[in-house]
């Protein structure tokens, strides 16, 4: 039986470390301490993830702006004019993000089933980030439709 080469072993070890890192990262982002009960703890859980939310939204928004540049919907020299609408969208997205912890607190107050309440934060977080990205990519879809169906 042949032993794997050092290169193959190194790649296997790298993959193992990457998988462990991703599992730890995903668990830390998408899981909740089962003993989290106070409103302050709920708000802290959400606020610890706001930076991740903003990074994801920045990436989605940057893709939209890049697509608009590539399709010549905006000119590079006019990028300064894009800033006010982008700022409004970013502030609005963060206001909607805040609704996440408000909704989780409402769930905790009015839903008595502990298992449902326990999953409310991660479910609301994933749903919120997904809808936010889809909303941002709706602009991309509109740009593409406009580009391909332009007369």
Tell me what the structure shows.
There is one protein chain. This protein has two domains: 1-30; 34-148, no CATH class. The protein is built from four helices and no strands. It has helices spanning 6-30, 39-70, 83-110, 114-148. Helix 2 runs parallel beside helix 4 (114-148) and helix 3 (83-110) runs antiparallel to helix 4. The longest helix has 35 residues, at 114-148. The mean pLDDT is 84.
The low-confidence parts are none
Beta-strand content estimate: under 5%
**How confident is the prediction overall: mean pLDDT?**
84
How many distinct beta strands?
0
* Total of DSSP H or I helical runs spanning 4+ residues: 4
Global outline: flat
Largest sheet: none
Q: Which bin fits the share of residues in helices?
A: over 70%
What's the end-to-end separation, in Å?
66 Å
Query: What integer value in Å does the Rg equal?
Result: 21 Å
Order of helices and strands: HHHH
Number of domains: 2
Structural class: mainly alpha
